Amino acid sequence: MKNQLTLFIIILFFVMPSIINAQSISGIVKGSEGSIIGASISVAPGVGTVTDLDGKYTLPLAAGKYTVTVSFLGYVPQKRNVTLVAGENQTWDVTLKEDMISLENVVVVGTRTAPRSSTDAPVPIDVMSVKELQSTGQLTFDKALQYKVPSFNTVQTPVNDATSLVDPYEIRNMGPSRTLILINGKRKNPFALVYTQMSPGRGESGADISAIPTDAIKRVEILRDGASAQYGSDAIAGVMNVILKDNDDEGSVTLRSGITSKGDGEMFGVSVNNGAPITDKGFLNYTIDFSKVNLANRAGIVSAEGDAADYKTNIDVVKAFLAKKPDAGNINGSPETTAAKFLMNGGFNIDANTQLYANAAYVYKKVNSFANYRTPYWQKTDYGLLTPAGQDYMGYGPTFDGDLNDYNGTIGVKSTKNGWNTDISFTTGGNTQEYTVRNTINQSLGKASPIVFRPGGYKFTNNIGNIDISRKLSEKVSFGVGSEFRSENYEILAGDEASYTGTGADSYAGNSKENSFKSNRYNIGGYADLAIDLTKNFLINGTARIENYSDFGNAFVWKFSTRYKLINDKLTLRGSVSTGFRAPALQQIYIQKAQYSFVPGQGIQVQGLVNNVSPQAKLIGVPPLGPEKSTNISVGFGSRLTDKISITLDYYNISVKDRIVLSQNIGPGKDTTSALNQLLKSNNIVSLYFFANALDSRTSGIDLVTSYRNIAVGSGNLSFNLAGNYTLENKRIGDIRTPKIITDAKQSLLSPTEEALMFTSRPVFKGILGIDYTIKKFTFTLGNTVFGPAKFRNAGLDKNLEIEFLTKLVTDLGINFQLNSKTTFSFNVNNIFNVLPEWKFVALTPAGLDLLNTPAKVKVLSDAMTFNQRYPVTTYDGSHFSQLGTLLNLSVNVKF
Fold it and tell me: CB–CB of 581/546 below 8 Å?
């Protein structure tokens, strides 16, 4: 009997837990758009589960009474009282209704704990759906953002070559390298190019966001706040998170065409987006996008007097040439661009608590552009290599072909067990740019020169591992920790020998073998994040991060943010303060492009861009590059007065210490006795320029975003959106840190031109007023974008003057017609009134006024700024919106 009792106790000990837990509640959770992935089902803090990829859930429970809560951000929670008896399995299928806050406002960027709504977050976040981006009628993702986000700016530079492959962009006037780009929350690789032209973004690198096909995007989240503590390097100005489409039950094909009002720049494109289930446990969504944009030429009528003066040539010779080619053969504006883009996004439910996810993209882009035409009084001969037999020499126009390959991919696993959320992922990416120069020669090779050159290019790759763990410790406390390992590789690709020998290929000299090499580094970082809802209305959030880089050591940064709700959640006060950093890009540390020149009696001499760790940089006392360090303060409020009206207003102040800049060209100078002069001469260096941590800066401003939606007008609905950015301050703080040997030679590391490109070349303010009206099958969109004044100090400009680009208003019209449930036509007229950039000279001193009061001198000044009127609209250095004028675009979307 005793043995039997012992056996019964043992059986009871092992079997009873399974009996107790043999009951459960299960079901499926749906919303307005189908099954909801990741909905929370809970009966107590830490006791619950989440729905899988099909929206299904199963929650094992002991017998007893429970209040089961089903919730998901953006929806009204539902509760149900249940009583489970031993061995019973109950089913509860739930359909959640949308909350007053739409699903499009639910964001994952800006927090390392639980997702929040954009109006509930303690930092400013813009959220845009793909429909909003497509309504602009712009051809690429970056150009669509230009007309939707007031603090975002991008521009095509007038002088293209390598810059034509990727246009510079920025948020809050901070340059492309200080905005971190994420794809589904994971880092996108930077591009290999570093801008060295005298254009906005000079000396910087970023990610190629134009490579992302718009049709693959579900929504875009733009965090306008410093976020280095949460995401690491590059997030000084903010973070852009591109969320990819994940539907598996529909697809569409879109045909696009367009043309400018001048009859050039023809565009043709086709895009397919489709989703499909993977058995009953997963999904796959993919996008294929092909496009071709033809050349749009905006060359001006060249000034004969200007060319004659510049080239010290008889004006009659110049006039005779310009009579045949009034634009001096120049071709500039928007280059011919061909692109093929492939992207996929997928997920698979391994079990009820574990999901496998992946996304990958590949982009090929080819750009055909032109260098400035070499007139016969500029280059005296082509040695008969480019001029057809029997024809007079008329100069030649070098072409520049760029080939870009960009890829990125992520694979990861998410799991939720016992209240812990774990995300483990691996990301890889790369960007390669290779160039071809045609219809030109190497003057130093004479008749032995080829006429096609391969000047090399640049390559960048990275591999990233992430581990992110979070848990909602209670209804009021959320906790997150994580780590990231990143390995980066940069390579300068050598050109063929003829492209760099002697003077190099005319228009674009190649990378020599001596200056072509590989470099790499790695870093590892970790963060901890804690969010506490002290009350229902009062939230505080703190994050700390430490990083270690193999090339410069450690960085520690932190962030504190808070939010307080008032008036029944109709008003939210918010603020944040954070420190940040940006690691110097490998491109900035190691890029080197020297040009060798033969000077009679002096032998071979070198000039050009030298890398930061080169012997030449050390000769003049340039220290190794270190990280930029920043402090970011943001204060503002958000108000949702009704479900139709919302307003956000935020002030920001960003201070950057040890900002990395590309210097001006440093030469011997006028003082032949200076130590700099002697040093350059003894090392056969004609001149050089380089990267350095040269200055501190401060940028402050105000962002405003308002909307009034779904106003009943007649038989339709009207919506207004008003958004703006105003820059209060954007300037250098303190002196430029110039090596002593350069200051002793009475030179500076930066000229007024470089400073203007950093601080005044972007609009002081930018405002966007959008009006949408939907009636029956039609939607009419009217967009008005005002670009405030911008100021340049172009190279060669008199020190008593500056150039100001005037405030301009660009108006866009879109008409959308839904023929039936499957077919939609869209017609856009961008820049209806053909508004072009316009600039003027502004006097800074009385001497400047005297110059402007003399018409003949103004003509000479104007010629100097426009390369003798080759670039009359943009000047030689650029403008702050497109010079192409009116563009017409038509597209048709067919669902299947």
Answer: no
Residues 6+ apart with CB under 8 A from 503: 442, 443, 444, 509, 595, 597, 598
Residue range 320-350, pLDDT digits in tens: 999 999 999 999 888 999 999 999 999 999 9
Burial of 763 (0-12, 13-18, 19+ CB in 10 A): buried
The Cα 107–Cα 112 span in angstroms is 11
pLDDT in tens, 661-711: 999 888 887 888 889 988 888 877 788 889 999 999 999 999 999 999 889
φ and ψ of 85, to 5 deg: -100, 160
Nearest to 500 by CA among 578, 435, 547, 560: 435
Rounded alpha-carbon distances, angstroms, from residue 638 to 300, 506, 514, 720:
48, 56, 56, 17
3-state DSSP call for residue 610? coil
* DSSP class of 588: H
**Residues in a beta bridge with 82:** 66
Distance of CA 411 to the CA centre of its chain: 22
- Residues 323 and 304: their CA atoms lie apart, in Å, by 10
φ, ψ for residue 744, nearest 5 deg: -60, -25
CB atoms within 10 A of CB 186: 20
Alpha-carbon dihedral 869, 871, 876, 878, rounded to 10 degrees? 150
* Averaged confidence pLDDT in the chain: 89
Mean pLDDT of 422-438: 97
Under 8 Å between Cβ of 785 and 768:
yes
The tokens describing 562, both together, are 């808070």
Locate 770 and state its tokens.
Answer: 């959008």
For residue 830, give the amino acid letter: N
Could you list the beta-strand ranges (E) of 551-677: 553-566, 571-582, 593-599, 603-609, 628-640, 645-662
Confirm if 832 and 896 have CB atoms less than 8 A apart: no
pLDDT at 105: 55
Give the C-alpha separation, 624 to 693, whole Å.
Answer: 9
pLDDT confidence tier of residue 119, bands split at 50, 70 and 90 = low
pLDDT at 159: 62
The pair of structure tokens assigned to 705 is 């975003």
* Alpha helical stretches, state H, 180-300: 228-231
* Kind and range of the H or E run holding 18: helix 2-20
Q: Residue range 804-830: average pLDDT? A: 96
The single-letter DSSP state of residue 644 is: S
Give the span between the Cα atoms of 77 and 740, in whole angstroms: 66
Fill in the amino acid letter for 651: Y
For residue 245, report the phi and psi dihedrals to the nearest 5 degrees.
-65, 145
Residues 6+ apart with CB under 8 A from 176: 168, 169, 170, 201, 204, 205, 206, 207
- At residue 110, the pLDDT reads 57
- Point out which residues pair with 841 in neighbouring strands: 803
What distance in Å separates the CA atoms of residue 846 and residue 798, rounded to the nearest whole number?
13
CB distance 43 to 17 below 8 Å: no
3-state secondary structure at position 557: strand
The per-residue pLDDT for 85 is: 87
Distance CA 811, CA 149 (A): 15
Residue 13 — very low, low, confident or very high, per pLDDT cuts 50/70/90? very low
Q: Write out the DSSP string of 89-140.
A: EEE--EEPPB-SS-GGGEE-TT-SSS-EETTTSSS-EEEEEHHHHHTT--SS
Q: Flag whether the pTM goes above 0.70.
A: yes
Give me 273's structure tokens: 């987006």
Q: How many C-beta atoms lie closer than 10 Å to residue 896's C-beta? A: 9
CB-based burial of residue 728 (10 Å sphere; 0-12 exposed, 13-18 middle, 19+ buried)?
middle
Size of the chain in residues: 896
Whole-angstrom distance, CA of residue 626 vs CA of residue 612: 11
- pLDDT digits 0-9 by tens, 286-301: 999 999 999 999 999 9
The span from the CA of 390 to the CA of 384, in Å, is 10
